[in-house]
Every structure is written in structure tokens, then in C-alpha cells.
Amino acid sequence: MAVMTRWLDPDEQRTWRAYVAASRALMDALDRELQRDAGMPHAYYELLVRLSEAPDRQLRMSELAEASGSSRSRLSHAVARLEAAGWVRREECPTDRRGQIALLTDEGFATLAAAAPGHVEGVRRHLFDALSPAQVDQLRRISETLAEHLTGS
Amino acid sequence: MAVMTRWLDPDEQRTWRAYVAASRALMDALDRELQRDAGMPHAYYELLVRLSEAPDRQLRMSELAEASGSSRSRLSHAVARLEAAGWVRREECPTDRRGQIALLTDEGFATLAAAAPGHVEGVRRHLFDALSPAQVDQLRRISETLAEHLTGS
DNA sequence: GCGCTTTGGTTGAGCGTTCAACTATCTTCG
DNA sequence: CGAAGATAGTTGAACGCTCAACCAAAGCGC
Q1: Nearest-CB residue to A123 (from B16, B128, B142)
Q2: Which H helix or E strand runs over B141?
Q3: Which residue from A41, B68, B81, B96 has the highest number of Cβ atoms inside 10 Å of its Cβ?
Q4: Does domain A29-152 have CATH number 3.10.520.10?
Q5: Do A18 and B143 touch (CB under 8 A)?
Q6: What is the DSSP letter of B146?
Q7: Nearest residue by alpha-carbon distance to C1' of C20
Q8: Domain topology for B23-115
């Protein structure tokens, strides 16, 4: 038997469209700024951040994929580029011969350190400056709920 | 004189990371579903929606770009693909000989109509079902504020 | 009417992501 | 042990987006 579609009511429509417009505009702006100022897309910046926070600035490819919410394939291509740029090195994993370890180089760390202030400033300008403290708190709860909901299913 | 970076405090960090994770996961999920079920990415689906809502199901390229928050170049490439798929047709603009009009074909409309229920269901499942009515309202206000803030600057 | 600028739109190269194979290693279990 | 299946990661093709360069038509100033 046919299941009726639960269409969006006008309020939900409005919410959904605003959400899509805002999040795309935000990500586009940050991507553009990061590309201009640091020569890398936001996704790559995030990979460097994750590595910089890891013990010895290194992670297994699968751990890095997990930490960054990236597919294995995407990560593989990305790390290849980051390696070509001299920001990351790959090493064999001593405990699992299938494994690869991605390691942030000093040059990668320096590039990240140079890019960080501008990027953070962008996040602040485009996001936090526009919202009240209460809204920031709401956005945190909403985002955490959604993230959990999405990765849980 | 050097301006100090206004770094993110731990709460802001948490908010920002959750936001990025959630919005990427959400868009990725919808993109994957739409690609699987309708053979088009979410961005193309949105173009068809905008056209379907326009008078006579047609819009000037520049209007469509504006309505969808897309660059002219992106739209040009996108419409070329949509045209190749038979979902959109291009026509000369009678009042401005530089102009092009993008027109949703019957086939495009039918494809859209077939894709809509599944997509709406996905939006509901991934987004609205996870949030309380109050949160949906908060998200609407936040998103509208952000969208305005971003496109205004 | 005639240059200058602006606007509308396209194009091609380069890059990042996805998807579907594919290889190699590890694990499990009879 | 040895075969079957799971896991780690890579690869190449197809596709979508960005950026800069470009062309054509429209508007503007004189």
C-alpha cells in the first residue's frame, strides 16, 4: 500500500531553504578564503588540524578518515595531494602491514600555523559574530544532535 | 600594529566542529540518496525545483543563478548537463539578445515529481525528525540570520 | 553616432569527490 | 594449517565546481 509523503509545511520549507542557503554560503566563503590565503580547501585544512592534534602529529589513515568524517577513497586522494605539497608524509605502519600512517611535516605544521588566524577570523566573522550567545548555544545543541543522529543511522 | 587573533574558546570550538560535521554529513547523505534514486546531485535537484516554481517553468540564467545562490559559471555548466539529460531546454531571450532562458521540460518536471517524495522523506528523516519543534524554530532563525549576514556582506 | 564600461553568459583547464573495482594483509574458524 | 571473509588502502574514470579568460550585447557619456 502506498505510503503518503510527509511533505514539508511552509515553516519547514522556509527552515530547510534557509538552512541550505546559509550552510552553503558559509562553507563557500570559508573555502574561498582558505584557498586564496593558504592555497588549500577547507577539507584539507581540517585534515592538517586533525593531524596536528594527534600524538606525534600522526594518525593511521583509517583513524584520520574517521576523525574527519571522510571516505577512505577521498582521504587517499587528499593525502596524496598533501604529500605532494610537502605538508604530510606517509609511513608504513609497524603493527599492520596493510596500514599507512599519515604524518604532519614541520612544513605542514608551519603552513597550518600561518593559515589558522585568518581562518579563525573568518569563522568568527561569518558565523559567531552574527549570532547571539543564546543562538550559539542552540546551534551547538542542534548540531550535536544532528551529527549523532546522522552518523548513528 | 599586530592584531591579536580572536581564537575560539572551547565552547565555540565544540559548536563549530559539530556544525561542520553535521552539515557535511547531512548534505552528503542527501546527495547520495538523490544521486542513487534520481541520478542527480542535490544542487541540480534544487535548480529543477526553482524552475518548477517559476512562471511558465522558466527563468533567465541570471535569475536562476540568483535564486539558487549559484555562480554564473556553475550554472552554465549545470544547465548544460541538465539539457543533455533532457530535463531543461535553453531558449533565446526576446528582450535581451545576450540572455538565455532556462526552461524546465515536461520530462524534467516528471523526473522532479518522481524524485520529490523520496527526497522530502530524506530531509525529514535526517533533519526534522531529530529536532524538537522549538529547535526547528531556532534553526530557522539562525539560518535566516546567517544567510542574510553572508549574502549581505 | 561612437568609444568605454558594464552585464550576461560560456568555455576550458585544474582540482576535489565519488563510485566501483582491485590488491594486499589480517582474522576467523573448521 | 588453509580457505573464506573481513579490513586497509589505492586507483582510475566520471563528474561537478572554481577560476580566469573570453565574447557579445547593452548601457552610458559626450
Answers
A1: B16
A2: helix B133-152
A3: B68
A4: no
A5: yes
A6: H
A7: A73
A8: Arc Repressor Mutant, subunit A (1.10.10)
